[in-house]
Design a protein that fits this description.
283 residues, alpha/beta, TIM Barrel, two-stranded antiparallel sheet
Length: 283
Amino acid sequence: MFDFNSLEKPYFIAEIGINHNGDLQIAKRLIDASFGCEWGCVKFQKRNPDVAVPEHEKNKPRETPWGTMTYLEYKHRIEFGKKEYDYINRYCAEKPIDWTVSVWDLDSLKFALQYDLKFLKIPSAMLTHKELLKEAAASGVPILLSSGMSTLEEIDAAVAIVSAKAKSYALLHCTSTYPAPPKELNLRVIPALRQRYGCTIGYSGHEHDLEPTVIAVALGAKIIERHITLDHSMWGTDQASSLEVHAMSLLRRRVANIEDMLGSSEKKVTESEMPIRKKLRGV
């Protein structure tokens, strides 16, 4: 079983989300990029739009590359079904690379459990969906919670539900703005969450830059999730706050040696300092 608490190095999740725009070929290219950049997992979003889309949003008109349609029609238009996910399941196994989904409703949870996924994600928007939390935790699949736009009290309640039944769980610090302003990232929350909940803490970033994610790892984040895209100019609300492929590779390299650089809290003379010490001090 996948155990979040056993992670020694940051585990990278490439959030494809809905940036595939309903096109399986785009999804394949993003899977290829994630594998090539040595990220550990690709993640999609799974919804039953009839259930997950709020009533006040369903009939709002939306301009799309496929013409003007209601927001509900648009969500159905880009949603992958069993045919696409069966293909994704096979394609990722061939790489190999892990894959998973965020589940936005109970129907999607049931759908996701058809596959042998290492973990399931509960998105920030659904952190207060108590029934979904209970059913996901009871599934036996490890659970990853995202905490964007949530109060500590809401996180407390969600963690209490999940920790009571889940075999393994972890929590992501997140600011649910796309893109997130640097002054609202509050990265010091990462060690505070680890102290409060005693579980593995990660970071789901929606900012433009790479530096906040690097800092998050230095502050103790063991899971890194970033949205990814083939091109910022592609149509879709999440494209602008996503990493292009070259940035995925840069970020992976920038955090590679952070654990080695942080070292330990023990102050000692290092091995490379010994000959310098002997030369300059004679001892």
